[in-house]
Write a structure and sequence with these properties.
The complex is a heterodimer of chains A (293) and B (247).
Chain A (H helix, E strand, L loop, with lengths): L2 H32 L6 H19 L6 H25 L3 H27 L14 E4 L2 E4 H23 L1 H11 L1 H6 L4 H26 L7 H15 L4 H18 L8 H15 L10
Antiparallel strand pairs in A: 1-2
Chain B lengths: L4 E10 L2 E11 L4 E5 L6 H9 L6 E6 L2 E2 L5 H6 L2 E4 L11 H8 L3 H4 L2 H11 L1 H5 L10 H14 L4 E5 L7 H16 L3 E5 L3 H7 L2 E6 L2 E7 H5 L2 H8 L12
Parallel strand pairs in B: 3-8, 3-9, 6-7, 7-8
Antiparallel strand pairs in B: 1-2, 1-4, 4-5, 9-10
Helix pairs in contact in B: 3-7, 5-7
Classes of the chains: A mainly alpha (293), B alpha/beta (247).
């Protein structure tokens, strides 16, 4: 067994896994707190990618700096979408919320995808930062700057979210609302506003993921659904209720997929990922990192 | 004396089923008022409606002249009305300290959080000992203490308690009721729903009887304790002759 090869696959698996993780964290945050399943999450990611793309091509903003810009834009879009659309779903009881949000967000996804198609054309877009070609080499393993930066930015963003949730009063209110929204309301938490801000934060995370994907892969109006599905697989792998669990599950999926290419062809990576998904559903349906409910 | 809490003609529905019909009652400042009655009488529905978790289908609720019945729950908390719900509804996965901290989330209470925490720990020293413990691992009695403590963190002026004695051992229940009496002496008005009618009537200044969604009777705690019909229906005994002291 060529250890360098394994190391290389592991590294790239972690890099792509961090992308999976950031997307999944946004989705699970929204679902965990308000039981809204936003199937249009991938489309928000796509829009985040475009925000970064235009920041780069029009204003020359460094793609990693434009991650912040993308987060801000998608935060605002999230506020709008929640106010205009999802708040009506949030008034329903939990069971109806999940079903209705699924339907509504599916429609939203179609709308966003076609608006993007109309506005941006179907061409794939990607950016190349000036330092894009270079790489570190460590013990024979090649670590490209772009991939490494993507990993670092993704980890930092998820880390910031964890700090928000664990160390701030508002973060505590978000967690409480996720556990028992009525009890949170009785404690004085404005549940509607908490939902609004949580949706915005989750959307901002989608935007961050989109920017990172712009740099490491490419974007086009059609990428949304594939990323939403990927995020859903990761969320199921992780189980409900754990933000960093979703990130870890993303890393896990990425590494399993990438490592599997040592034995199977690259086209079968996705299959391996889904086999893992099925295995977890069969053996530990609550998810790998789910907390005691 | 003008009432602190005034409920007039309140009706509440669950879908097509009416759970409360024309409920009118009042609570004066400084009182302990009890709501007794059989299961399914609508007591919890009424408490949830008062707390803003449920919209009344008709009628009005006002607190010191301010209209309450159209407000969101967190706004009602800002007015100083805090509910300890039936079944406690603690944030089970969070620590005792986090549960208490959240109790002070309202704008009114949060600036005094540290001081309020100290006084809650004075009332419930056990909570101070176990502050880092996960709430769901506490015993039933300890959880009830935490639930009451959490409500006290919000600096209530009117404390609503829904079945505080449910599932608790008699000794523990006595402790809880001693706390209720103590906070009432400190100036907190109390509205209490209790299946344990005897306890409720013994501690209350006044009480209402709720049956099938309607007010079926009212009186002072002592009067109702010695009322033969109440005794037969809710207290499980009937005194002989004119009652002198309760059983």
């Amino acid at each position: 067994m060529d250890l360098t090869l394994v190391g290389q696959k592991l590294a790239f698996g972690l890099f792509v896994g961090s992308n999976y993780g950031v997307v999944a964290v946004g989705l699970t945050l929204i679902f965990g707190v308000m039981r809204v399943l936003n199937v249009g999450h991938g489309e928000l990611l796509m829009l985040g990618g475009y925000a970064s793309y235009f920041a780069f091509t029009v204003a020359g903003v460094d793609p990693y700096v434009s991650v912040a810009l993308s987060a801000i834009c998608l935060f605002i879009l999230g506020l709008l979408l929640n106010t205009l659309l999802f708040q009506f779903v949030e008034r329903l009881d939990e069971e109806k919320r999940i079903k209705n949000s699924l339907l509504i967000s599916f429609g939203l996804a179609l709308v966003l995808q076609n608006v993007a198609l109309f506005a941006f054309s179907a061409d794939e877009r990607s950016v190349r930062a000036a330092y894009a070609g270079g790489a570190f080499t460590f013990a024979g393993i090649v670590l490209p700057y772009t991939r490494l930066l993507t990993f670092v930015v993704g980890t930092v963003v998820v880390g910031l979210l964890t700090v928000l949730l664990r160390r701030t009063y508002f973060g505590m209110a978000i967690r409480a609302t996720a556990l028992d929204w009525e009890a949170a309301a009785l404690a004085g938490v404005d549940v509607r506003r908490t939902y609004l801000l949580t949706f915005a934060i989750g959307s901002a995370l989608a935007g961050v993921a989109g920017s990172l994907i712009l740099v490491t892969f490419s974007i086009s109006p059609a990428i949304g659904l594939a990323w939403t599905l990927k995020a859903l697989v990761v969320v199921v792998l992780a189980g409900m209720g754990s933000i960093y669990g979703a990130f870890l599950a993303g890393l896990l999926l990425g590494t399993v997929e990438n490592l599997s290419t040592i034995w199977v062809g690259a086209e079968y990576q996705q299959v391996v990922g889904l086999v893992l998904f099925l295995a977890v559903l069969l053996l530990r349906p609550r998810g790998l990192f789910a907390r005691r409910q | 004396m003008t009432a602190m809490l005034k409920v007039s003609g309140v009706a509440a529905d669950y879908g097509d089923v009416r759970a409360l019909w024309d409920i009118s009652l009042h609570v004066d400042a400084g009182e302990i008022v009890a709501l007794v009655g059989p299961n399914g009488a609508g007591k919890t529905t009424l408490m949830r409606t008062l707390a803003g978790l449920h919209r009344p289908a008709a009628g009005s609720i006002s607190f010191e002249g301010q209209t309450l019945h159209s407000l969101a729950p967190h706004r009602i908390v800002e007015h100083g009305i805090i509910l300890v719900p039936e079944g406690r509804h603690l944030f089970g996965e969070m620590t005792v300290l986090e549960n208490l901290a959240l109790g002070a989330y309202s704008v009114r209470a949060r600036s005094r959080r540290a001081r309020t925490l100290d006084s809650v720990f004075e009332i419930f020293p056990l909570l101070r000992e176990r502050q880092k413990q996960i709430a769901s691992t506490l015993s039933g009695g300890q959880q009830q203490m935490l639930a009451v403590g959490r409500a006290l963190m919000g600096l209530p002026r009117l404390l609503l308690l829904d079945e505080p004695s449910l599932g608790l051992a008699p000794l523990v229940v006595r402790g809880i009721f001693e706390v209720i009496a103590a906070v009432n002496r400190e100036g907190i008005t109390v509205l209490l729903v209790e299946q344990n009618a005897h306890l409720a009537l013994a501690v209350a200044n006044r009480a209402y009887i709720l049956e099938q969604g309607r007010v079926a009777g009212e009186g002072t705690g002592a009067d109702l304790l010695h009322d033969k019909q109440v005794q037969r229906a809710y207290l499980g005994y009937v005194e002989r002759g004119s009652g002198c002291g309760s059983g």
